[in-house]
Amino acid sequence: MKKDEFINKAYWCSMEDDPFVIFAHGGDEAIAFQKDNTISTIPYDDRAELNWRELGIFRDTKKEKRFQQKLEEMKRLERWEERETGVQKKRTAMEMTKAFIEFIITDRRLRFQGNRCSLDILDAYVVRSSDEEQLNKCEKSQQRLNRRLKRANEAKKDVSAASKAVEDMKVSIDSLIEKIHKDDAEIEKHKEKYRKDKREREKARKEQEKQMMANEQNKARERKEAEEISKAEDKEARLLWNSLLTPAALRYKGNPKPSYDK
Fold this sequence. Notes:
By secondary structure, the protein is an alpha+beta fold.
């Protein structure tokens, strides 16, 4: 790691209208991709109280703010691609979010490492958003088919075919609604996995801190015991030394050297 680099963190949370809002620590605003290929921003004050989950870690610098740079870079590349092809990609907001995460994963400077549970949640959101998009199209088709059936009944012509088309569409819609319920359950399963992993990491962190504290206490106790032993040995050595000296030596204050008992 270079001298000016440090490990930064990115987070995400769900809001009422934006299920996957992203924020990089040190940034001024959180972002959320929209269906119309735009990006909405959430000011600091509005995002401060939200329940953030870890999205991943990456290498950053205070000067560059690389996470924000990659966002601008992705937008420039997509605008260039649209000009070259003349085609604007049609993606759901979650598909755009996933595209951005995949984009930053490929950056060698960032070296982004995503939280596995959070990425699984995002994948589940992508599936649900695709199913919701399909459901929306089916519901619009259902409205057209209902109008066609109404006209067929009024004209008393092709009623059977129009009625069957309405019934078939209803079956498709019911199937998609059931699928979306399963998507929601899958999302919740991954969220619970995230919460469980977080609890386990927190428990491991506390146990590590407890062990470190116990180690420090043991070291402090060992140092104290060593000091007490050293003091006792010094005292014993002085007593032994003094026991070898004559009374004259004990009173000695200068030269010549004291004499010892023979």
